[in-house]
Structures are given as C-alpha cells and as structure tokens.
Amino acid sequence: MPTNKSTWDWEIGTETSYLGASPQEFWSYRHLLASLVKRDFLLKYQQTVLGPFWILFPPLMTLVTYLLVFDKIVGVSTGELPPVLFYFSGIVLWNFFSSGFAGTATTFRDNSQIFSKVYFPRLVMPLSVMSRNFFDFLIQLALLLLMMAFYWLFLDWSVSFDLGLLWFPISVLTVGGIALGMGLVFSVLTAKYRDMAYLISLGVRLLMFITPVIYPLEAVPEDVRWLAVLNPLTPLFEVFRLSLLGEGTVSPYLLGYSVLFMVVLMVVSLLLFNKQGDKLIDIL
Amino acid sequence: MAETVIQVEDLSKLYRLGVIGTGSFRQDLQHWWSTSVLKKENPFFHLSGAEAGSLPKDHIWALKDINFEVKRGEVLGIIGSNGSGKSTLLKIVSRIVRPTTGVVRGKGKVSSLLEVGTGFHQELTGRENIFVSGYVLGMGKEEIRGKFDEIVDFSGIENFIDTPVKRYSSGMYVRLAFAVAAHLEPDILIVDEVLAVGDADFQKKCLGKMREVSHSEGRTILFVSHSMQAISKLCDKALWLHKGKMQELGEVSAVVDKYVSGTQQLKLKQEWATPEEAPGNDLVRFKSVELVPELLSPEAPLDIRTPLKVRFQFWNMTDDVILNTGLHLFTYGDECIFDVPSPVMRCDKGLVEGECSIPGNFLNDGSYYFSIIIVRDTSVEVFYFEECLSFEVEDYRADFQWFGKWWGAVRPNFPFRLRQKDSVYQQKYNSHS
After folding, report:
1. How many structural domains comprise chain A?
2. What pLDDT, on a 0 to 100 scale, did the predictor assign at position B431?
C-alpha cells in the first residue's frame, strides 16, 4: 500500500525554513525555557558567598566609578536630576541591553555541544538568556526605585508620575527587542566567522558612547547630535528617564523610528536565525 | 501489515573537510549571490549527475543514496565501521543536521539519544538534572513528575539524588542519564552507541528496557551499536553502512553474519616457524593452530553437517609443569557457545600437541571463532590466545521447505521422535460409548 504523502507528520528536507518551529511546537518546550532560566540563575549564584547580591554589586560599582569620573572630575551635566539617579538609571538599562546582546550573540558557539546532540527549537536558548537578563534587570530596577524613594523622602527631590509612565514598558521592551534581534544576527555571524566574537565586546563599548548613558542628549552639541540620534537606542534611553525621572529629550518621530527599527530587526533576525540555525550545526 | 513510520529517500550528506566551515566572507557572499539571486548552480561544487565524480578534494560524502523504510514497532540496527556514516544518518533523522540531498519523512514524535546525559550539567543535583534533561529530550512537566520515582528507582541512586552530579562516579552518572532516557515515550526512539559505557549488568538492564519498549508498546527504534550481540538481540532488521553507502539491508542475523564475515578475515590455519615470532609468552608459545573440516569432497562447503577438528601445537618452555588447555567457541555476537577443557597432563620442555573433535550436525549456520586458553595447575592462566581461528558454517537443509533463519547458537541433531498415539475419530467414538 503506497502511503499518501500528506499523511506524514514531519519531513526533513534539504532546505531549512525561514519560519522555524511552529508555535505549538515552541509552546511544548516552554518548560525547557523555564528550567534553563532557573538553571542559569542557580548556576550563577548558588555557590557564591554573596549569592544574588552579585546582580546588584557590579552596577553599584559602575555607579561609583561614573560618579567619580564623570560627575566629580569631568563634570558632565546631568540637568536637574541628582547624578546618582541619572547615572544609575542609565546603567540599569544599558546593562540590560549589553548583557542581553552579548549573551545571545554567541548562542551557537556556547551551545554547540548540546545543539549537535539533540533537537529542540534553537530559539529557546537565546530566549532563556534574555529572560534571565530581564530578571536581573527587574532586580536592579527595584534598587533604582528604592533610590528614587530615598531621594524623594529625605533629599527633597520631587517627581510626579503622569501618563508618560506608559512609555516606560515600551522603552524597556524595545531595548530588549533590539538586544535580542542584534544578538540573533550576531549569533549566526559568530558561528560562521569566529573573529566576530572579539568585535562584539569592542562594539558594545563603543556603542555606549553614542548612547545617552553617561550624558543627557541635551548636553550633546548640536553639530554632532545627529550621530547620537541616528542610534535607535538614544530615544529609548531618553524616554526611559523621562517616564521614570521626569527628564529627557525625545520626539514622537524619534521614538517611532526606534520602535520601527526594533520590529524590522526582530523580523529579519528571526528569519535569519531560523534559516541558518540548522545549517550552522554542520560547521560548529 | 504495520504502517511505515520512517521513510528515507535518496539521502546524501556532503561534508567539507579541513578548516571546518569558516570559509571567507567573500566566498559566502558570492555563493549567496549566485544561488539565491541569480538562481545559478552552486559555483563551488556541482551536484548534477555528470559532475558527481569531480567532487572537490576536500569534500566527502558522509552518506550517499540511502533509501530505507521502517515500520511501526520495528527495531532497526545500524552497523558499520567507524566513519561509515551511522551517526550522520541518526543526526539527520533526529533533525539535528540537514541532508544535502533527499528527504526523510516520518510519523509521530521522535526522541534521540545520541550521547549519555544530554542537557546534564555538572553543578546541578541529580533531581534538577532529571528535569532539565527530560525537558531537553522533549518530555513534558507532568510526564517527568509522573515518572520521577520510577526514573530514580531505575537508576538505583536514590541516596544521591540531591547531590550535584559532579560528585557522581561515572557509572552513576550514566545510570541516571540513561534512566531519564529510558522513560521517554516517543513513537520513534533513536539511540547511538550509548550502551558502550556503563557496566555489564546495567547494559543488560538497558537492553531489556529497550526491548520491552519496542515489543510491548509498539515503539520504533533506530539503534547504532558496535556490539553485534546487542544488535542481534535487540533488532529485527539491520542496515549495514560502508563508507556512507548502503552495503546490506535485511533480516538482522543475515546482515550481521555478512558484516562479520565481510570485515573479519577467515582464519583456518596459522603457523609460526620459530618460537621468537610466535604468539605467547616466556612459558608457552604457539607453533600452529588449524581447523580441519572433514569435508565429504574437496569442493564441498563447510556446512552444518561437517565434523570439525581443531589441532594446535605449542612449545612448552618449562619442565615438569601440569598443564591443560581449553577450547572456547564464540559467535561474532561475542556469545560463548562452549568451553571444552582438555585432560590435565604433566608436560616437559618441548612441543605439546592438542586435538579436539567437534561432531557434525552440531553448530548452527553463522560465523564463529575459537580462542584457546592454556592453564597451569588447573587454575592459573598461562596464556590466552584470542580469536586464533575464525570460520563460517553454511546452512544445509535437506527435508525442509522453510528457509527462515534457524534459531539458536547450536543446531544439534538430537534424537527426536514423533508418532501418532491414536486417532481423533477413535477417541470420539470411545468417549460416546
């Protein structure tokens, strides 16, 4: 009895698909995603003396450095905002972006062992990295909120939340989306061209200087401002501060540009990741 | 007839050797431009038939033109020497890598077990690893919870379940890893050589579990192993791959026999002129070993009816020593058929000769080998000459119309009587009266 072709459940051909795993299949691996996030968290903090405190310690050290160098020595203006809040808000959001991007950009290299032994939707891995970084971000954000409360209660700093707060989740999601999208594109590149991995840490450091992390966009001279504005992260950092701390320079157009950039990047990177994912296993 | 659950069609896989994969960026761009944009043939290699012979030097076909089908509940063993493409085939069927040409179609959920402890992490405890590994292999949360106790029980490491696996012995690690895998419930299970690790008892347990899974639950298994014994025990059919091509596909014992005789040189006689070059040690050295079949005519094949004689001579290098020898016959599945001891004898320096007769109508058809052991004082091994003779026994059936593989390692011709005790009609008549 010749079997009808349409009765097969699955088919493995020569061509990889742009669409990757079906939503149902992806959903069936949700527990894997959750357990990977949990695993990474446990592995990172289980056997250290200070445990989860390590999530807060590095950004605090960075804050101290920035306060010393940029506030006391160089004297970068932070506008009306207390420098502590200004720098820490920038550090928290930048950490989310940079560790999300760097963590996902080496997906194939880091997981070559398991990828070459078992099949599961490859996207689970970068998503678990992003989730863990988001978790770290939330903890750091809680510290930022505590600092704001402290300034508000004891140091006579006033802040009023209004509808602008709605921009807050949008800015965080868009930053996360750009980090993941860039991470997915670079995960393919680092698997194919090994030296890309070295460029990433360098690139991230340079990118920080054209993003308003340590300076407000307002403080940038008009004639070079285009460079910062061209960076889709710029409006997001500004609107993040605006919604939380009440100060930032942003226009709806620039924000639209960032969101559009994120959406296009996500689509392109997902297609690329799915299409290249299976092929890369051969060369890992 | 059971339905086909895996269909492999014209499957080939091309690999590039050398500095793996990382061609230059420019080359990749050219490739992409000409194949995707201009829709031309790949400029770096052509797959069209006429050019297939002119494959660039650094490319190699890991698999070429593989075609087979597997039916539901069938266990297919895949055998072949190293580098014959077994693992590549499993990786393609497992969806890990893509074929260069051809297609694999299938029905049902596939789980693959290509290494021991996929998804295990050294720092996590046994309990945590059961979950992570289970998820990686495609199990659901409820499924793992439901089977958790069974898994721990199967592995036999209850006391260490909350200890990080880095503190496990390698045996415990393998047990736990296989226990998770053994409780997978896919429709198709793909297993690569994972039984090579672990102790003999546990291997037996795993084989038993796998057989149970395939026979009672109708699960389909693809199984790669170097152990012909495991393959013979577990599989219904076997596929022999040789340098990426299909050499033989069919009923398991036939393929295993052909594989064994194809890869093992027949050794019917070995002789050494001087003790210096002969196998042995300071105490004994073999001069010759020989298998003498008593054939009906010089052209007749060595078949199941043929009586055999094993003759051997060895130089004994010590005076006044009590020796005896043992003759071991093995199948190429490494199962021992018999262990026949010689009489014990007091020997002096010089040549000692032994001869053992094996009657005809005793061995089944198949491939066998002999090993000879020399023992001192009936207890101390002096020298064990492994696989010193190897031979094949061919089939012969005079009165049978049935040609399937005859069961058993031996096919002895014991006296067997069958006769009519009384007829059914007579019995009926008697009971009614």
Report:
1. 1
2. 56
Q: Which of B63, B104, B409 lies closest to B244, judged by CA? A: B63
Domain that holds residue B328: 269-393
**Chain A interface, mutation test: which of B22, B105, B123, most A Cβ atoms within 10 Å?**
B105
Bridge partners (DSSP) listed for residue B66? B11
B167 touches chain A (CB under 8 A): no
Which of B4, B98, B128 lies closest to A14 in CB terms?
B98
CA distance B340 to chain A (A): 46
Q: Is B270 on the interface with A (CB under 8 A)?
A: no
Q: Which two three-digit tokens encode residue A76?
A: 């970068």
Please report, for residues A55, A94, A213, A238, B22, the alpha-carbon distance to residue A168 in angstroms, rounded to integers and kept in the order given.
Answer: 22, 15, 16, 10, 42
Three-state DSSP class for residue B71: strand
Tell me, yes or no, if B97 comes closer than 8 A to chain A by beta carbon: yes
Q: What is the mean pLDDT of residues A51-70?
A: 83
Mean pLDDT of B296-324: 87
Query: In this structure, is residue A182 part of a structural domain?
Result: yes
Q: What ipTM does this complex have?
A: 0.80
Are residues B29 and B93 located together in one domain of the fold?
Answer: no
Q: Is residue A1 part of a domain?
A: no
Of the three residues B238, B262, B286, the one that is the final residue of a domain is B262
CA distances from A84 to A70, A89, A147, A168, A240 (A): 11, 8, 9, 19, 16
A/B interface, count of CB pairs below 8 Å: 115
